[in-house]
């Protein structure tokens, strides 16, 4: 069995600076997006509980569904990081917990249409899991690493949703 979180732009939290902007389009199809800048790394965060996460510590998959605001070609570099705290066990201050090593993926826009939905998959393994255990409080940080040489998409990358999944057995 697989446990799945569906994380939406409106549920994101933001740092004091360098954050993705929330956009709401209320035309024919109501759409909510997070706009990630084309020149500076921008972040958004979600909190979740590692419900039913097994002792075997399987990989965590992060599926990023995105579109380009105006571009029809180029590559976007996405980065995912986790921070995990076990309640009543870890003595870490929750507000100063550091994130584990980032895992990145480069995803190519398939062309033809701006705002066409693309999907990138990031697999978080090993030390990047930050020793997640069942029922941990987990923070997910998602970044567009726009200042990296591999990120060639001109204009904003618009995040539509983030799916987080892991096997429970």
Mind explaining what this structure looks like?
The protein has strands spanning 2-7, 21-26, 30-36, 42-49, 60-68, 75-85, 103-108, 118-124, 137-144, 157-167. The N and C termini lie close together (6 Å). The chain is built from no helices and ten strands. The strands form two sheets. Strands 1, 2, 3, 5, 8 and 10 form a six-stranded antiparallel beta sheet that branches. It is globular, with a radius of gyration of 16 Å. The chain has 169 residues and is mostly beta strands. It has a single domain (2-167), classed as Sandwich (Jelly Rolls).
Structural topology:
Elements: E1 2-7, E2 21-26, E3 30-36, E4 42-49, E5 60-68, E6 75-85, E7 103-108, E8 118-124, E9 137-144, E10 157-167
Antiparallel strand pairs: 1-10, 2-3, 3-10, 4-9, 5-8, 5-10, 6-7, 6-9
What is this entry, summarized?
The chain has no helices and 10 strands. A hairpin with a 3-residue loop joins β2 and β3. The chain is globular, with a radius of gyration of 16 Å.
Feature tags:
4-stranded antiparallel sheet, mainly beta, Jelly Rolls, 169 residues
- Fraction in helix: under 10%
The CATH architecture designation is Sandwich
CATH homology superfamily: Galactose-binding domain-like
Q: Sheet with the most strands?
A: 6 strands, antiparallel
Given the helix and strand composition, which structural class is it?
A: mainly beta
Beta-strand proportion: over 45%
Task: Please indicate the count of domains.
Answer: 1
Q: Give the overall shape.
A: globular
- Count the DSSP helices: 0
The N- to C-terminal Cα distance equals 6 Å
């Amino acid at each position: 069995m697989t446990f799945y979180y569906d994380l939406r732009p409106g549920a994101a939290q933001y740092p004091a600076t360098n954050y993705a902007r929330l956009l709401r389009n209320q035309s024919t199809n109501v759409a909510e997006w997070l706009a990630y800048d084309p020149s500076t790394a921008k972040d958004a965060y979600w909190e979740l509980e590692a419900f039913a996460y097994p002792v075997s510590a399987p990989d965590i998959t992060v599926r990023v569904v995105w579109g380009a605001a105006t571009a029809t070609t180029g590559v976007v570099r996405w980065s995912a990081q986790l921070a995990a705290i076990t309640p009543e066990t870890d003595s870490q201050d929750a507000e100063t917990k550091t994130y584990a090593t980032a895992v990145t993926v480069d995803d190519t826009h398939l062309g033809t249409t701006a705002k066409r939905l693309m999907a990138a998959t990031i697999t978080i393994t090993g030390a990047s899991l930050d020793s997640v255990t069942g029922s941990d409080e987990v923070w997910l940080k998602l970044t567009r690493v726009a200042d990296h040489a591999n990120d060639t998409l001109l204009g904003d990358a618009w995040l539509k949703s983030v799916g987080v999944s892991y096997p429970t057995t």
